[in-house]
Amino acid sequence: MPQQAWSAKRERQYKDIKKSELDRGRSEKRAEEIAAATVNKTRAEHGETNAEHGETKSSTSSGSGSKRGGQRAQGSGKTRDELYDEARRRNIDGRSKMNKQELANALGRS
């Protein structure tokens, strides 16, 4: 199921992944699906997709979902763990039971 838009490197990657999936006992169809999805994801992460053909850079390249959501959710730009570490450095009481917003408030970042 290799695509015309794929480079020779991506063709090899597809074949290698497909073979690996077949060796693991997957069906031919499922192995092809996994290989194609993996290659397309890698292409998107490396900016190899072409927006003219309806392909766009996926959100997978911008980090893990929890980190992206955490950074956007409260607008502080820091994750809960980063805020917690700062609260620990400042010795803020009750920090272990605080959520992200409470930590931001305690640090004066709200």
Task: Give a verbal description of the structure.
It is a single chain. The chain has 110 residues and is mainly α. It has two domains: 8-62; 65-106, no CATH class. It has five helices and no strands. The chain is elongated and about 55 Å long. The N and C termini lie far apart (51 Å). The model is unreliable at 55-61 (pLDDT under 50).
Any key phrases for this structure?
mainly alpha; 55% helix
> How much of the polypeptide forms β-strand, as a percent range?
under 5%
Helix content: 55-70%
- Poorly predicted ranges (pLDDT <50, ≥5 residues)? 55-61
Distance between the termini: 51 Å
Tally of helical runs: 5
Radius of gyration: 21 Å
- Average predicted local confidence, pLDDT: 79
Can you write the helix and strand succession as a string?
HHHHH
Number of strands: 0
Number of domains: 2
Helix/strand-derived category reads: mainly alpha
Q: Largest sheet, described in full?
A: none
Shape field: elongated
